Each structure stands twice: as structure tokens, then as C-alpha cells.
What we know:
Helix content: 40-55%
Number of strands: 3
Amino acid sequence: MPRRSTAIYRRLTRSHLLAIGQVAASWSLLERMVLSALSSLSGVRLDKAITLAGPSAFASWIDMLMILTGPSTEHAHKHQEIDKLGKLLKKLLTMRNYIVHAVWQVSVAGKGLLGSRMYVEPTSTSKVVADGFPKRGTEWIKRVAWTPKQM
């Protein structure tokens, strides 16, 4: 992929852009897997499960999994595992949103008046900062600073 002249391509390394893209692409696969689990647990064909659940948010899909494996269902023996998995998936959703729905920029080089004005070209191991906009919860903005590996 050739470097472009737009600001985002000048400010982030290829490693940073690839990490953000990998999170976005991997998430689509995870969504498909959750929809498949909903289909299997509910006994509804996948195309119908996608049609029914698709318009809902991902967190709602997790809630649906919890209901389908609740104590009063034939899948009750899976409920405890699904509960742990659901909590993990909701945490990952929040972290994914901090990466995908964020404004990324290079962190400042130093402190103080002079240091904050300096621009340092990022490397593939540099931390870059992002202002993320959570879709749930009480925080209206979340600042994170991650390397590509942390993403």
C-alpha cells in the first residue's frame, strides 16, 4: 500500500494502520461467529438469525446468548461459561470501539512549552494516542495510548 499524503497516513506508521485495520477486520469475523452461536442455540437457520439479530447492537447479541443459555433452558449447563464469555466480549467491544471509533494522532514528543511543540516521526513501536468515543457507559470521551502490538 503506497503512502498517501493525507494527514492520517503521515502521522501513523504502516504498523499502526495495519493494527487498526486488523482489529476492524477481525471484529467482523467475531460478529459472524456470535451470530452463528445465536443461530445454533436458538435452532433458527443462520440467515433468519442474522435477519432477526442483525439490526441490534453487538452487546444485545451477547444478552441474547445469555437468555438462550439461561437457567430455565436446555442449554443451562453452558450458562456459566457463556456468562464469562459474555463479560469478556463486552470488554473487548469497548476496547475495539476505542480503536476503531477513535481519532488517532502522534503523541507529543516532550513536556513543557518547547517539548510539546516538537514533532517526532513515530516508529512501528511508538505509542500513538487516540480520543475514543464510547457508545455505552458514562464516559463521553476516552483517551488511550497504544503501540500497534497493544492494539
